[in-house]
Every structure is written in C-alpha cells, then in structure tokens.
Design goal:
Strand order of the largest sheet: 1-2-3
Radius of gyration: 12 Å
Oligomer: single chain
Structural class: alpha+beta
Number of strands: 3
Strand content: 15-25%
Number of domains: 1
Helix content: 10-25%
Distance between the termini: 30 Å
Length: about 60
C-alpha cells in the first residue's frame, strides 16, 4: 500500500467509516485535532513518522 493511502486509511477514511468526518480526520477550523509534526514527508515514506518533532493535543503543543 502506498504511504499516502496508509495515512488516509488511518485518518480521513476511518473518520468516514465511523461517521465522524464532521469532527475528526481532517485539518480544519472547528474540528478536533491531535497532530504531529515530523521531519520529512510521511506521505512518501512512512518511516518519517519516527522523527516526531512535536505533538499537539487539545490545542496545546508539546515538544520533545
């Protein structure tokens, strides 16, 4: 499975399956967000997910 498809399967597609796409699975104002920032482009290489620079949960940024 291509990396981008795997990321979609873990985010926006799951939200649709769970009928929660109005609250989760996308980055948009008004939606719940738990985000990570990584070095590189995980849509091309999932191994980049191992290089987490920060995590945002409930609007608070936590740095490693």
């Amino acid at each position: 499975m291509p990396a981008l498809d795997a990321l979609k399967a873990a985010t926006s597609i799951d939200a649709k399956i769970l009928h929660m796409e109005d609250r989760i699975g996308r980055i948009r104002e008004g939606l719940l967000a738990e985000l990570i920032a990584v070095d590189g482009d995980p849509s091309k290489d999932l191994a980049k997910l191992h290089s987490i620079r920060l995590v945002m949960k409930n609007g608070t940024i936590y740095k490693q």
